Structures are given as structure tokens and as C-alpha cells.
């Protein structure tokens, strides 16, 4: 375990050097500046913490998906064979990509927060409150990064990726399949509706910590036990995603992209 951790840290540094050399960080910086100018620049009206973390709660996961996708592209190259041939575990290889992506997103989030702190002070937020409200946001960044790795061609084949995406779509379908559609289904087969609702409930369970974490960041309230329980749930879900990705990567044939 310790050896894998050391290998992952070394691979993180190597991946970040490749990332900097590619010049890709200019795209992330552009996204940061654009988000600041469009949503968080001074407008003459004092900004509150709820609005800041409403924007940041979307900014972080979206940037996590984009940055992780690029890191996967760096890892999914023939050079990966050389790295893995030097007694580097597949788990360390995958975790190194995850660490690199998360570090990039956290740095960009820090830059965004610094811009806000210097130019558009949040009236109802101190340093401790800023840190606490960032905790569930940071965990969501990790969750979206881990899920992106899990759903990448590097880890899962096409069939399994479509299957997982179908499960996610079904879990989110309660907001889409409703009203007239449900009424029509009940007329055709009430039992089918019962089964559908049960499946949606089961599949949407793992998504609850993600959405609740977003709400926690916006509210900034950490006085309830359920808030800290949700942080534990987010952490557990993150470990589960990484564990699944690592297991799938270890089990599949190692075929890197030739491009």
C-alpha cells in the first residue's frame, strides 16, 4: 500500500509536468477568468456566500470532468506501457491520473476564490466559513473526477460504459419521467410503475450525497449531524468509485490508444 502510494505521487508529478508542458493550463485559466467575469465580478451589489458557492458548486465539477478527461488522454498513450513495465502497479497509474486532475482543479478553484476575495468581498463569509463550505465542494470535485475515470475507455469497455451511463440516466429519470407519462404507464401497467419507482429510488441513493453536498456548500450550515454524516458519505462514495475504477482497470486487457 505504501509503495503504491509513493508510485502514485511520483506519477502525479510526472503527469503534471506533461500537463504544464502541453500548455493545457491556459484553457483552465481561461475558464476561471470567464467564470469570474461573467458571474463573480464586482457589480456594485454585495455578494453573499450562497451565490458564490452556487457558482463554485457548478464550476468545480464541470472543470473536474474536463481536466480529468485531459489527464486520461495523457495516460492513454503508448508511453504507458513503458511506465507500467517498470514494476509500477496499475492502481498507482490510475490514482496518479486522479491526483493530477484533482490538484489542477483545486488550484484553479483557489485562483477563483482569490480573485473573489481580492476584488469582490463576500459580506457574510469569513475564512473558517469559506474553508468549511469548500469541504463538500472539494469532495464533489473528487467524485466527478473519479466517475470520469471510471467511465473512461481506459478503464471500462464500451458495453460496460453504456450500462453504467444507463443506470445513471435511470437514477436521474425521476425528474423526467413524471406527470402524464407516469399516468399513462399506470393505466397500462401499475405494477410497472411500482417497479420503476423502486429502481429509481435504489439507483438514486448514491447520488444523494452529491446533491446534498452541493446544498451544504450553499447554505454554509454545519451545525447538524447530518451534514457531517454526508461528508462521510461523500468520502465513502469517492473511495467506492476509485475502488471500482481500479478493479476494472486491473481486470481488463491493457490496450492504450495509438494516437
TrEMBL record:
Record field: transmembrane: 20-39, 51-72, 92-118, 130-156, 162-182, 194-215, 227-249
Coiled coil segments of this chain: none
Presence of keyword Transmembrane: yes
Species lineage: Bacteria, Bacillati, Chloroflexota, Chloroflexia, Chloroflexales
Name listed for the protein in its UniProt record: ABC-2 type transporter
Top-rank taxon, per record: Bacteria
Keyword field: Membrane, Transmembrane, Transmembrane helix
Keyword presence, Membrane: yes
